[in-house]
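__Record contents__

***
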Amino acid sequence: MKSPKASKQLLDLLNQAVARELQVSVQYMWQHVQCTGVKGFAVRDELKMIGIAEMKHAEEIAERLVYLGGKPTTKPTPIVVGDTLKKMLQTNKKDEEGAIALYRKIILVARKEGDEVTEKMFKEILADEEAHHDTFTGLLEDL
């Protein structure tokens, strides 16, 4: 059986997702190692855990992209570590909001193209991103 082909629009969106996942996986991991103070110590493990989850998303999306006939990017979107915990978490919250919007768009395009597998995959990833957004929103409450 031959692999299905996706539209250029969907392949481009998937590559945007790969670039975004690469970005935040590095960003969150660097934040994890650079957190200082009591508050930083309290969130560093969460940053590491989310960073690892984002790298798994990058891998999953890249595999789907290749299956659909595309080539995954190796270039992340711009990484912003931040110099205070508050700036880090504000940036992360904003990045998760961007991911949520992008992934909702990917779900719609995949549905329109009849690509149930990509649609299902991004629904699952979207749930993770909403949970990450909720975590960063909650962590910002006392800062």
Observations:
- The first helix runs from residue 8 to 34.
- The chain has four helices and no strands.
